[in-house]
Amino acid sequence: MQTRNGVTAAPLGITMGCPVGVGPEIILRFFTQAEAQRPVRAVVLGDAGVLRRCAAALAIEIRVVDWQPGAPVQPQALNVLSLSDLGDGLVWGKPTAETGRAMGRYIEEAVRLIQQGRLAGLVTCPISKGALKAGGYRFPGHTEMLAELCQARGFAMMMAGATLKITLVSIHQPLVEVPGAITQEAVLRMIGITGQSLRDDFGVPSPRLAVAGLNPHAGEGGMFGDEEQRVIGPAVAAGREAGWQVEGPFPPDTVFNKAVAGQFDAVVCMYHDQGLIPFKLLHFSDGVNVTLGLPIVRTSVDHGTAYDIAGKGLAEPTSLAAAVAMGEVIVGNRKKLVAESGQP
């Protein structure tokens, strides 16, 4: 694929994730299924040897070829920038410090190539947080690592599907700590990040946002908690003053039904399970994790390494396919914004 001036358009980059998780298998299955329907403008950053051995073990027929930055993507093949050579001693479902170092390197190189314009955006397969730490990385996961590599401060996580999109004011915190994390500043910040992403990344001209309450029945006028009155309600009012079309706080047990019915484009949630339970009920197989607030495009599968089924031929590439498709949409929308702004 070429642009109007004849320059080859940069492909998406897919990091292989943990070499002994389901990442290699879902990549192989995605490419074999997708190539039967349309060419895939994406390359894999990982380990060509691991991918070849996985393909042979699971009887997946695909041609694995070497790809170097700037080179065209070969059709009807899995194009791989091989960044490790882990050998034959790997055991499915058994991560090591070596696999942790490898998965970290895939991520680092992907960001570097995006910053150089050699890749259009990033799609990530699942990693092991424990192996990443064992490999010498201090980050608790992809999001924090990418934020530091990109020197981004105002970042956030969105879980996105065709039916429901949610963002989280607090993420991986014990429930006992959640009320303290729900501040007016944090809620207002998430309203802004969510609205900006819907507008710029998803092409929604006038995003409609719902904000969930923290307590049952959104506090029932203070009977079951006053965070809605003290914190969340004022943040919603401030969001409207800032120009966002935002309503709430809504009782958490009804707000998702409103969003699914089409009244809202996204729900700003107060804590992890409040948003992830309804989201995964609807999008367990095809949900996409999108990191907001980065200067690069990053989407991800919405599942873990699944060590219990790794190497058994049971992994499905549905979430990876959705993440690639969403990455393509966001890259296209961001390019459109740049073109409309007249920036080079």
Largest sheet: 12 strands, mixed
Number of strands: 12
Question: Could you give the distance between the termini?
Answer: 20 Å
Residue share in helix: 25-40%
In the sheet with the most strands, the strands line up as: 3-4-2-1-5-12-11-6-7-10-8-9
Task: Give the uncertain stretches in residue-range form.
Answer: 1-7
Average pLDDT for all residues: 92
Radius of gyration: 21 Å
Sketch the topology as an H/E string, one letter per element.
EHEHEEHEHHEEHHEHEHEHEEH
Query: How would you classify the helix and strand content by structural class?
Result: alpha/beta
The shape, in one word, is: globular
Task: Indicate the proportion of strand residues.
Answer: 15-25%
Q: How many individual helices?
A: 11
In words, what does this structure look like?
The chain has 344 residues and is of the alpha/beta class. The chain is built from 11 helices and 12 strands. The chain has helices at 23-35, 48-57, 97-115, 129-134, 142-149, 178-181, 184-200, 227-241, 252-260, 272-283, 318-341, and strands at residues 12-15, 42-46, 64-66, 78-82, 122-124, 156-160, 165-168, 208-212, 245-250, 266-269, 288-292, 298-301.
